[in-house]
Amino acid sequence: MPLKKALIHAPTDTLANPQSVVQSHHRSPANRGARHVRRAAALLGIALAAAGCARLAAIDSNALWKIVDIRCVPAEQATGTPGQCTAVNLEKRYAILKDIVGRSQYLLIPTDHVSGIESPQVLAPHAPSYWADAWAARSYVNGAVKRTLPDNQLGLEINSQFRRTQNQLHIHIDCMRADISDALARHAKDAPGTWHWDTLDGDRYRIMRVTALTGASDPFRLVSLDNPDSDAMAMQTILVTGAGASAEKDGWLVVNSGLDADNGSGSAEGLLDHACRVADAS
């Protein structure tokens, strides 16, 4: 099977109208105990549902890694051109690849072999700033739609281990759904550094406004504070978008959910719009 076929990702959750239920987020010892119970139940459910995921087995789960490692990095090293990729940054250790799904969807993929959100490598002391680099790569989305979109109409997303088809870390870079951007606008002025719960597209997410995507505010590090082991991180999905039209001025919103949360989700990809309809709005 051609490697490009593996860029087709599994369908995301059924879309629904967003509903808002916002509250401050605090984790008590009892809540943590309940989380462990839900996590165990979610893992059991995933194992029992494995037979229903057989169709995913037909996709080469290492295709993205093969494309980057065999086709893109060697081409960049030998000729200074990125091969099948859109760009390769050898110094920062990532590649940008146009996904075959959607008019404007790109992927940031490490040039190191990193399995996904659950990998301890993303939390290593000198790990690359994948989220900041992916945010800088939103320029490719703007180029694809031939418009400079406001930062709150652009998003980055990573799926949980159980809602992905590829075992190489990749961050989706694309347009946001307009209704989701509208729903998230109520968090645009949230005090930085505090989680708030909300319902988006029928699933429960917690949202934090941050003023940077690096250091202690790196989304992987923020989410790992409440999910300190790889099993817990494996269930998480993260989305990042601008808190306002200019993220440099307004900050970013980190949107997180997990399969072990009540009414949680292991994928926020459905909050993106791979058709990028916001680019066609007048």
TrEMBL record:
Keyword Membrane listed: yes
Keyword Lipid biosynthesis included in the entry's annotation: yes
Principal cellular location given in the protein's record: membrane
Enzyme class at the top of the EC tree: hydrolase
GO biological process: CDP-diacylglycerol catabolic process; phospholipid biosynthetic process
Record key words, sorted: Cell membrane, Hydrolase, Lipid biosynthesis, Lipid metabolism, Membrane, Phospholipid biosynthesis, Phospholipid metabolism, Transmembrane, Transmembrane helix
Family of the protein in this entry: Belongs to the Cdh family.
The protein's name: CDP-diacylglycerol pyrophosphatase
Record's GO cellular component terms: plasma membrane
Catalytic activity, reaction form: a CDP-1,2-diacyl-sn-glycerol + H2O = a 1,2-diacyl-sn-glycero-3-phosphate + CMP + 2 H(+)
GO molecular function: CDP-diacylglycerol diphosphatase activity
